[in-house]
Amino acid sequence: MPHPDDLPPLDVLLPVERAGERFEPRADEAELLGAFTDRMPVDPPRGVHVRANMVSTVDGAATGADSRSGTINDPADFRVFRVLRALADVVLIGGQTARAEKYRALDVPEELQEARRALGRAPEIELAVVTSGADLPDALLDGPRPPFVITTGACARLDAVRERIGPERVIVTESDSPGVVDLRVALAALGARGLAHVLSEGGPTLLGELIEADLLDELCATSSPLLVGGPAPRIVNRPAWFEPARELRPLHLLHADGVLLGRWQVVRLGA
């Protein structure tokens, strides 16, 4: 990963009244943190605020040829990525993403720790994995800070996972469909644990489920200046059209070296 000193400046394209401003790289990233906390509720009215962060190429691919998002991002995306994590109480991912991207316990960069404390966040970022089968890497489950595992009562590994990471780290939900995680219940359980600021990092299936359930508040979407072709997934994987299509309102658009970094508010149904 790039060293903080090698991260690029980010130019503001939107909102129009701020066009031409620039976020110069700083060790503590105070200005950029401020940009991403603007309009972010301190006490979310629904108990949790759910923000997703995704990257795709110009031709719409959410991964490179190796099925990993890490091969299509760059230092500009990484700069925003680390700031978004520093603002999160918990990072939410799907089981496939946990395996493909080789997730481990999450750390806050040393230079961002003071800014995180000033916002009232806990010193450590929690990780939560949505998985119906709880088939997760040993290195993740046996690490010094295992994740929350969000699953269902139908999970065949449920008792084993509870014993392995502790019952307090396992969140069991039940939906109308056996073996399907109820994300609304899962998010409420995270909120009840004081994890109000949720950052979803994918994958596309989890993001589609959050949108379908009207649980997503905000989307940060990076467009990487690449064309990769192939059968790559989009950032949202859902077999049916959203009905209705979800409306997005731009909060800001940043640019660096051909990379476009958008922040969008999702208009929740009935809002």
Query: What class, by secondary structure content?
Result: alpha/beta
Radius of gyration: 18 Å
- In whole angstroms, the N-to-C terminal distance is 40 Å
The residue-averaged pLDDT reads 95
Low-pLDDT stretches are: none
**How many helices in DSSP terms?**
8
Q: Largest sheet, order of strands side by side?
A: 2-1-10-11-9-3-8-4-5-6-7
Helical content (DSSP H or I, runs of 4+): 10-25%
**Beta strands, count:** 11
Strand content: 15-25%
The coarse overall form would be globular
Would you list the SSEs in sequence order as H and E? EEHEHEHHEHEHEHEHEEE
Question: Main beta sheet: strand number and arrangement?
Answer: 11 strands, mixed
Topology:
Blueprint: E1 10-14, E2 22-23, H1 30-37, E3 49-57, H2 75-86, E4 90-94, H3 95-100, H4 113-118, E5 126-130, H5 138-141, E6 148-152, H6 158-165, E7 170-173, H7 183-192, E8 197-200, H8 204-212, E9 218-224, E10 248-256, E11 259-266
Parallel strand pairs: 3-8, 3-9, 4-5, 4-8, 5-6, 6-7
Antiparallel strand pairs: 1-2, 1-10, 9-11, 10-11
Question: How would you portray this structure in words?
Answer:
It is built from 8 helices and 11 strands. The protein is an alpha/beta fold. Strands 2-1-10-11-9-3-8-4-5-6-7 form an 11-stranded mixed beta sheet, sandwiched between helices. The longest helix has 12 residues, at 75-86. The chain starts with 9 loop residues before the first strand and ends in a 5-residue tail after the last strand. The mean pLDDT is 95.
